[in-house]
Amino acid sequence: MAHSLDFCRETLSKQTNVKYYTKYQKMPFEEDLFHEFKGHKNLSVDQLPKWTQATKWERASRKSVSRNLCGFLNTGFGGTVYCGVLDDNNVIGLKLTLYQRDHVIKSMHDLMSRYSPPVSKHRYKVRFVPVLPRDTTEEEREELLKADTRGLAGVGERKTEHVLRTPDYCWCDKDAKVQYANGIIVTSYVIEISINPWNHDDPCNKGFGDFLNLHPIHADEDGKIYFRRQARLFQVQ
Ligand SMILES: [Zn+2]
Q1: Between residues 211 and 21, which one has the greater pLDDT?
Q2: Which residues surround ligand 1, an ion (CB under 5 A)?
Q3: b/e string for 98-130 if b means 16 or more Cβ within 10 A?
């Protein structure tokens, strides 16, 4: 499996970097070595809903985002998980309040700290890309994007601890329900979680790799090691 660095750069450049998506649009690429689509935002195994443990059908069961991140880390090439995009490339987005977005970021830091060895913050990035309704005018889109950056910031609330490592509702999810019930429009997003390709020249990576400074191999929060080959994962431990 010889991939040159140029090949990686070229393929990674497929990353969208768009300001927003439109609901039900097709992603401009398919799942491959660098891109994984998820219809949910269950980052870790312990956030998966209870029904996923009960199901008998392997294909039908929901899998955590973590396995894919582990695979992207262990190839050394990096990659991006898009939460809010279905397997058939359709963008649906996930409704997220400001507090729920904080929750996702906290969960991500928590998850990466539980890997073995832990993954430092400079190796990944979380980006929330708004999903706007179809059939909107340019002005309406601008208005929606402005509303998104204003948020609903309550400084006090943003300091409240989120409940992590469980499929149960956190206070931020209950707060979101109240907002929907009150008719407040909550923006939908695609959560783009990117693992940067391993760069052995990055001073932040010094000491993390092996003696040749090749990328470290990580086990996920469940003690499992995944690699990615094309659009598929395989587990080696
Ligand atoms: Zn929360």
Answers
A1: 21
A2: 103, 162, 170, 172
A3: bbbbbbbebbbeebbebbeeebeeebbebebbb
- Cα(40) to centroid of ligand 1, in Å? 16
Distance of CA 102 from the midpoint of ligand 1 (Å) = 7
The pTM assigned to this predicted structure is: 0.88
Kindly give the distance from the C-alpha atom of residue 166 to the centroid of ligand 1, in angstroms, as a whole number: 11
What would the pLDDT profile of 214-237 be if each residue is shown by its tens digit?
Answer: 889 999 999 999 999 988 898 987
The helix (H) or strand (E) run that includes residue 229 is strand 226-229
Give the whole-angstrom CA distance, residue 128 versus residue 216: 28
**157 sits in which H/E element:** helix 155-159
Number of structural domains in the chain: 1
Residue 67: name the closest of 237, 227, 231, 236 by CA: 227
Strand partners, 232: 229
Tell whether the model's pLDDT for residue 97 goes beyond 50.
Answer: yes
For residue 119, the CA-to-ligand 1 centroid distance in Å is 22
Find the domain containing 147 and state its range: 5-235
CA distance 209 to 200: 8
How far from each other are the two terminal CA atoms of the chain, in whole angstroms? 20
